[in-house]
Design brief:
Elements (H helix, E strand, L loop, with lengths): L2 E4 L6 E4 L9 H14 L1 E4 L6 H11 L2 E2 L6 E2 L2 E9 L23 E8 L7 E5 H6 L3 H7 L3 E4 L1 H4 L1 H5 L3 H4 L1 H6 L3 E4 L1 E3 L6 E3 L6 E4 L4 H15 L5 E4 L6 E5 L3 E5 L8 E8 L6
Parallel strand pairs: 2-3
Antiparallel strand pairs: 1-2, 3-15, 4-17, 5-6, 6-17, 7-15, 7-17, 8-14, 8-16, 9-10, 9-13, 11-12
Length: about 270
């Protein structure tokens, strides 16, 4: 049976009583799913999972989404490698929800810490249900009627501007035209409402002037990172984080350069936000 230790006030639980290197039975799967719905992000320590273990665990929750902008583990195209060192510093430094530039963004992601810096390299997670609840009733009502544009080219503009970037990411640009999502999303299983805009991929609010859109998005981005809503996870080798992408945002803390950091991630297919 799982043991769950709440990690912070708004979200997060440290999970013990499970070995992710062996198959997860139906009872443990249901406990994991319920815990994820309640805590929004789950953390595990001392889990030396293999790529096959990683794929098997993620597969219990749904098929993977591939991300062609990053390399993958050999023979496991669903396992994205996120690796940085002295020669390749991290480029992602903003709060975001993964891959909202897709019509069907991932429902969640499982991240395995393979090589961890001696110091630094934490990840911040924030509850977007808590962020929604922290708004006034009038603001909640106003936002529930709005739609936002999410754009791959907006989020990957730095990569696209690099030498050869347009050619390398040409197919991703073709496959991912801008999409529309509600500013406030209803979680399909828990029924929670959550803020569903993020500074990396949300380019504007539909049917607003550029100035109106920018002012509102700046307010919401600032609100989402208020100190009441996040938690900070300190990685150790073979730690695992499993977050519900439908109701959270996250941000890497890039304070470890030029140390080496290698993470391996699977994103799990999701549904259309409503």
């Amino acid at each position: 049976m799982l043991q769950l230790e709440p990690y912070a006030g708004a979200l997060g639980a440290l999970v013990t009583g499970i070995d992710l290197t062996v198959p997860v039975n139906d009872v443990l799967f249901q406990e994991l799913n319920n815990a994820l719905l309640q805590y929004e992000v789950l953390f595990f320590r001392h889990q030396p999972i293999s790529p096959q273990n990683h794929a098997d665990l993620a597969g219990l929750f749904g098929p993977p989404q591939l991300h062609q902008a990053y390399p993958h583990v050999e023979n496991f195209p669903q396992i994205t490698i996120l690796e940085n060192d002295e020669a390749t510093p991290s480029k992602i430094e903003m709060w975001h929800t993964d891959m909202t530039f897709r019509k069907y963004p991932p429902q969640g992601a499982i991240l395995h810490g393979v090589v961890i810096p001696e110091k630094g390299g934490d990840t911040l997670f924030a509850s977007m249900s808590a962020a929604y609840e922290g708004l006034s009733g009038k603001m909640q009502e106003f936002l529930c009627g709005l739609t936002a544009i999410h754009d791959f080219t907006f989020g990957f503009r730095e990569s696209l501007d690099e030498p050869g970037g347009r050619d390398r990411l040409a197919q991703m640009v073709i496959d991912n035209p801008p999409v529309e999502h509600p500013v406030i999303r209803t979680h399909p299983l828990s029924g929670k409402k959550g803020l569903f805009v993020n500074s990396l991929f949300t380019s504007r609010i539909k049917d607003m002037t550029e100035k109106e859109s920018r002012m509102l998005l700046d307010f919401l981005f600032d609100h989402a990172q208020k100190s009441e809503y996040p938690c900070r996870f300190r990685w150790q080798p073979d730690s695992v984080a499993f977050w519900d992408n439908r109701i959270t945002q996250h941000k890497p803390v890039n304070d470890y350069w030029p140390q080496h950091r290698r993470m391996q991630r699977i994103t799990i297919d999701g549904d259309e936000p409503y």
